[in-house]
Amino acid sequence: MTICAPSSQKMDPARVLDLPDGVPPLCAFYLYLSNSCNLACRHCWIVPHFVDGRPSPGDVIDPELLRRAVCEAKPLGLSSAKLTGGEPMLHPHFVELVDMLSAEELELSMETNGTLLSAEVARHLKTNTRLRFISISLDGADAATHDRFRQMPGAWEAALRGLSYLVEAGYTNTQLIMSVHRGNVAQVEALVQLAAERGAGSVKFNPVMSVGRGIAMHQHGETLDVDEILALAAQLRALRKQVPLRLILHLPLALQSIEDLLDTGAEVGDCGVLSILGILGSGEIALCGIGRTIPELVYGHLGQSSIRDIWLHHPRLLELCQLLSDAAHYPGVCGVCVVARRCRTGCVADNYAHSGHLVWPNPWCTEAERRGFFPTSRLKTGTRGG
After folding, report:
1. HSE-up of residue 293 (Cα within 13 Å, Cβ side)
2. What are phi and psi of 134, to 5 degrees?
3. What is the pTM assigned to this prediction?
4. I want to staple 84 with a disulfide (CB 3.0 to 4.6 A). Which of 111, 173, 209, 213 is the partner?
5. pLDDT at position 341, please?
6. What is the H or E stretch that residue 286 is in?
């Protein structure tokens, strides 16, 4: 395998790993516990399943097969897992699965819509597991805006109730995630104030991208353009001076100001793709959740494929490592950007969905360059002013 720069995923430097020289550690599993959801969000690629009017989890990860995969991956560096979906809490053995992963000493985080949380489960997660960080989706400062986007009446109240259970259980760092589009961007400040009032620790803003059902939103002119994104960045810069919360915008590193980078610790950038594997509810082992819709980014299957063989030898992973290591030959504006080696052209899954290429410039960076306001301080010497 080509030697790759270390990823941003954290790992205990004292651990001795069973890896050939030059192979990066497999630090994290992204676990898509269920391939279904109890909501039908307008931007998502998940199609919810209902049986007799009740949400069905659809395909879910087999806990025993997952435990075996964890045991196989730990000598490769596995130390953490992110629980996501679909809706992870739809898994019929959700609590037992979190207990198992905690017993395997993995540090855990979770992304959830918050509607299925109970006070009892929140207390158990905080007291008895290694689930340290939980993000809850909240897409409006009022019920009408959130529920219209999530396409389920009562979702806003249920999400805030879930947040209250986490705060009462002792979580002080719960994050709210807002999927920003033209229908809710005017509520950013109100949502930040709501987050502060309800005890959240941070708010992350993810602009709706042209993937999944977000393609239709983009075609209908509902997604933000680069001018609106940069205006949102300026708004958040001002809000950080007014509230005690961390406010994070998913924005390419090259378009972030120095002040933004200092405020957020430059944590939005490389997604760590060279240190993760995704495991889908179907049991498929993939680049990440995009494997649901793009079969060529699936590498194997739990119970049938060796995690070690995939990590060391799968041609798609070898190709990705080679492409990301060769920053001098990144396409488009990435090829002349001084932070490209750090951001690695952003989300390779989005890149592939948009262009059919794993390594490809973010469309906002491309548009900024085309219109002449890509920051000259982020261009390599000899390309400034181009």
Report:
1. 15
2. -130, 130
3. 0.91
4. 111
5. 87
6. strand 284-286
